[in-house]
User: Fold 5,6-dimethylbenzimidazole synthase from Yoonia vestfoldensis.
Amino acid sequence: MPNTSALAQAAPFSKAERDAVYKAIYTRRDVRDQFLPDPIPDEVLHKLLDAAHHAPSVGFMQPWNFIVLRAPQDRERMWRAFNTANEEAAGMFSGERQSTYRSLKLEGIRKAPVNICVTCDRSRGGEVVLGRTHNPNMDLYSTVCAIQNLWLAARAEGIGMGWVSIFHDADVRALLDIPDRIEIVGYLCLGYVEQLYERPELEVKGWNRRTPLEELIFDGKWQGDP
Assistant:
């Protein structure tokens, strides 16, 4: 029998609470450049990290760590590593696609007052982790859930966030002294913003479109490429 004293009532949210949750989901954006220089108060940053820390994790292993960078010189070093990889990435596209890529402003590392590197300690739960016995990547997925929690909490606080993925893993490890056994999952830029795109920036600028949900739902079994 479950310990009923440890259970909370699963009452539905009020309409206003539900609307707020969906508003955060539907208006969340990947912010690349629009950051203001205003600092994020320590108590607000702690709230965001606490929201991340309350994400679900396989076997309750809580594999995440958060390396917070505030100093301009630290962010500048990270930007240089990013810029090297970004130039390589631009060369992977051609023609109009490359022009569009280069037109995207990717200055968040420098402009955002807070950068956070989110890592996953895959050894934290020991060799055998409840729920990870047959899917070894569940700890990585758990860490991504923490990032999503942080992102939605940031949106609710009026803070923009961008996820930077254009790095050489070895460069980030060297700059942040991250051991080889630790997985780098996300590098995030956070700061206040005056405005957000009504739709994703890459959709607004013609890079891609949102796929209709109906094309992505299969009934009962895989039904071919959508």
User: Anything to note?
Assistant: The domain at 30-198 is CATH 3.40.109.10 (NADH Oxidase). Strands lie at 64-69, 114-121, 159-164, 182-192. The longest helix spans residues 72-90.
